[in-house]
Design brief:
Its main location: other. This is Calreticulin. InterPro entries: Calret/calnex (IPR001580), Calret/calnex_CS (IPR018124), Calreticulin/calnexin_P_dom_sf (IPR009033), ConA-like_dom_sf (IPR013320). It is found in: Cell surface; Cytoplasmic vesicle, Secretory vesicle, Cortical granule; Endoplasmic reticulum lumen; Sarcoplasmic reticulum lumen. It is a single chain. The chain has helices spanning about 5-10, 50-60, 65-85, 265-270, 325-330, 405-415, 420-485; strands at about 25-30, 30-35, 90-95, 110, 120-125, 135-140, 145-155, 160-170, 175-180, 180-185, 200-210, 210-220, 225, 240-245, 250-255, 260-265, 280, 295, 310-315, 335-340, 350, 365, 380-390, 395-405. It is an alpha+beta fold. Among the domains are: about 5-85, no CATH class; about 90-275 and about 375-415, Sandwich (Jelly Rolls). The strands form six sheets. Strands 3, 5, 6, 8, 14, 15, 16 and 24 form an eight-stranded antiparallel beta sheet that branches. Strand 15 (about 250-255) and strand 16 (about 260-265) form a beta hairpin. Helix 2 (about 50-60) packs antiparallel against helix 3. The longest helix is centred in the last third of the chain and has 69 residues, at about 420-485.
C-alpha cells in the first residue's frame, strides 16, 4: 500500500470510501485520503467508518512493542478478510464475438438430431458498422430449423447476478422466425440438441406476422418451463439490437433492449412458479342477509297509464296494390313499421338501497400448498449456450454473446461493440435505402418511357393500318368507277 501525497490528498474530498479500481484514492472522514494500490475496496459498515489504512494506523498508534506487532497482525488479518469480501472481480463465463474467422467452428457444435437443419455462415451482412466486428452467425436457408451450441466451463449463479446478453439483426425483413437464445445445463448432448431438449433459460425476440412481436423470457423451474406473464415488445426493424437479461439473487429481474430497461419486477410476481400465497377460504360464504345491491327499485314508483304501446304498428300510408287478388294472394294486410309512441319495457326508477353493505369480500387464508422458495433464480451447472429456432425467411445475424455475473461488464462490452457500430450501421443502411430508392425511381421512369414509346408505336401502327385501309378503299372505288365507264350501255348494244 502507498499513501498519496499531501497535494493529492487535498484534491480529494469525499466522505466515504469509493475505491473502484487499482490506483484510485480511498477517502476516509477521519484520517484523510489514502491510496490502496492494486486493490478494489468498498466501505464496510460492519467494521468501522474508517478505511483500512486508517484502521491499521490507529492500531499502530495505540499499541506498543510486541503487543503493537500483534495488533498490527490482527488488523492486517481483518484487512485480508475485507479484501476477500470486497475485492470481487466480474466473472465472464462465456463471450463470443466471432473475431477469428472460421475458428468459430471449433467452438460451436451443429446438432445432428435432424439431417435437414439449416446451415450457418459467418458474415456481417449486407450493411454493418464495422466489416469485421459485426461478423456473426447468420441463418442462410429459408424455411429451416436451426440448432447450434457452444459449451463453456459449468458454473452456478447461486448468490450472484446472472447476465445474458447478445445482439440480433433481422436484416431480411423477417416475417416469421425466432431470434432468441437458450441456456442449457452441462448434461446437454450438443450433437443431439433439438426443440425438446431441456433448457434452463430461453431469452430473446420472436416474430411471426403482425400478432407476435415479443421478447421471450422463459425459465425452467423444477422441470417445467414457465413463460413470463407480461408482454414485452421486441424490435422488428432491420437493424442490430442489443438484448440483455439480468437475473438477481434477490429474485428480481430486468430486461433491457439497446441498453434501456423495458421491463423489470419480481420472479414470483411475473411468473407462475409457485401457487398463490393466499387463497379464498373455502369455508367462508356470503351471509344470507348481506345486501350487496347499491340500488333498488322504488316501491312508490308506478307505471303511467299510457305507457303500454305496441312496438310495431301497421303502416298507415300503405295501400293495397291494384293488382292484388284476394282469391290468389289472400287477405291483404299493410306492412308493419316501428311505433313512434313505443316506450319499451317499463321499469321503476332506482333509489339508494338503505340496507346496502357494500360488496362482500371473500376472506382469504394461507394456501397450504404454498411454500416460499428463495432459490427460484438459481441454476446449477450452467454450461451451454445454444440457438435452437425456426425461420421462414433466413438472414438473421447473431453476435456479441456474453454470460457474466456483472452488469457493468455487460454494459462495458456493449460500449465496445454495439455502441460503436450502431450509428455507422444505420448510416450505411440509410445510404443503401436511398440508393435503392433512386434506382427504383429511375427504373420506373425508364419503364414509363418504354411504355409510352410502345403506346406511341402502337398508335403509329394503327394510323398506318388505317391509312392503308383507306388507300385500298380509294383504289377499289376508283377501279369500280373505271369499270362503270368502260361498260357499254343498252342503246349501244
Amino acid at each position: 500500500m502507498e499513501v498519496i501525497s499531501e497535494q493529492a490528498q487535498e484534491r480529494t474530498n469525499v466522505s466515504w470510501c469509493t475505491v473502484i479500481g487499482p490506483g484510485t484514492p480511498c477517502c476516509c472522514p477521519i484520517a484523510g485520503r489514502h491510496l490502496f494500490a492494486g486493490a478494489t475496496l468498498k466501505y464496510s459498515p460492519l467494521f468501522s467508518p474508517r478505511c483500512i489504512w486508517c484502521t491499521v494506523q490507529e492500531s499502530n498508534r495505540g499499541l506498543r512493542g510486541s503487543r503493537a506487532e500483534m495488533g498490527k497482525m490482527q488488523v492486517l488479518g481483518v484487512l485480508a478478510v475485507i479484501l476477500a469480501v470486497f475485492c470481487v472481480h466480474a466473472k465472464v463465463y462465456f463471450r463470443e464475438e466471432f473475431l477469428d474467422g472460421d475458428e468459430w467452428r471449433s467452438r460451436w457444435v451443429n446438432s445432428k438430431h435432424n439431417s435437414d437443419y439449416g446451415e450457418w455462415k459467418l458474415t456481417a451482412g449486407d450493411f454493418y458498422g464495422d466489416a469485421e466486428k459485426d461478423k456473426g452467425l447468420q441463418t442462410s436457408q429459408d424455411a429451416h430449423f436451426y440448432a447450434v451450441s457452444s459449451r463453456f466451463e459449468p458454473f452456478s449463479n447461486e448468490g450472484k447476478p446472472l447476465v445474458i446478453q447478445f445482439t440480433v439483426k433481422h436484416e431480411q425483413k423477417i416475417d416469421c422466425g425466432g431470434g432468441y437464445v437458450k441456456v442449457f445445463p452441462s448434461d446437454l448432448d450438443q450433437a443431439d440438441m433439438h426443440g425438446e431438449s431441456s433448457y434452463y433459460i430461453m431469452f430473446g425476440p420472436d416474430i411471426c406476422g403482425y400478432s407476435t412481436k415479443k421478447v421471450h423470457v422463459i425459465f425452467n423451474y423444477k422441470g417445467k418451463t414457465h413463460l413470463i406473464k407480461k408482454e414485452i415488445k421486441c424490435k422488428d426493424d432491420e437493424l442490430t439490437h442489443l438484448y440483455t437479461l439480468i437475473l438477481n439473487p434477490d429474485q428480481t429481474y430486468e430486461v433491457k433492449i439497446d441498453n434501456e430497461k423495458v421491463e423489470s419486477g419480481s420472479l414470483e410476481d411475473d411468473w407462475d412458479f409457485l401457487p398463490p400465497e393466499k387463497i379464498k377460504d373455502p369455508e367462508a360464504k356470503q351471509p344470507e342477509d348481506w345486501d350487496d345491491h347499491a340500488k333498488i327499485d322504488d316501491a312508490d314508483d308506478t307505471k303511467p297509464e299510457d305507457w303500454d304501446k305496441p312496438e310495431n304498428i301497421p303502416d298507415p300510408d300503405a295501400k293495397k296494390p291494384e293488382d292484388w287478388d284476394e282469391d290468389m294472394d289472400g287477405e291483404w294486410e299493410p306492412p308493419m313499421i316501428p311505433n313512434p309512441e313505443y316506450k319499451g319495457e317499463w321499469k321503476p326508477k332506482q333509489i339508494d338501497n338503505p340496507n346496502y353493505k357494500g360488496p362482500w369480500v371473500h376472506p382469504e387464508i394461507d394456501n397450504p400448498e404454498y411454500s416460499a422458495d428463495l432459490n427460484i433464480y438459481k441454476f446449477d451447472n450452467i454450461a451451454v449456450l445454444g440457438l435452437d429456432l425456426w425461420q421462414v425467411k433466413s438472414g438473421t445475424i447473431f453476435d456479441n454473446f456474453l454470460i457474466t455475473d456483472d452488469v457493468k461488464e455487460a454494459e462495458d462490452m456493449a460500449k465496445e461493440t454495439w455502441d460503436v457500430t450502431k450509428e455507422p450501421e444505420r448510416k450505411m443502411k440509410q445510404e443503401q435505402d436511398d440508393l435503392k430508392r433512386k434506382e427504383d425511381e429511375e427504373k420506373n421512369k425508364e419503364q414509363e418511357t418504354e411504355a409510352d414509346e410502345e403506346d406511341l408505336g402502337e398508335e403509329e401502327e394503327e394510323e398506318e393500318e388505317e391509312e392503308e385501309e383507306e388507300r385500298k378503299g380509294e383504289e377499289a372505288t376508283k377501279d369500280l368507277e373505271e369499270d362503270e365507264e368502260v361498260k357499254p350501255s343498252h342503246t349501244e348494244l
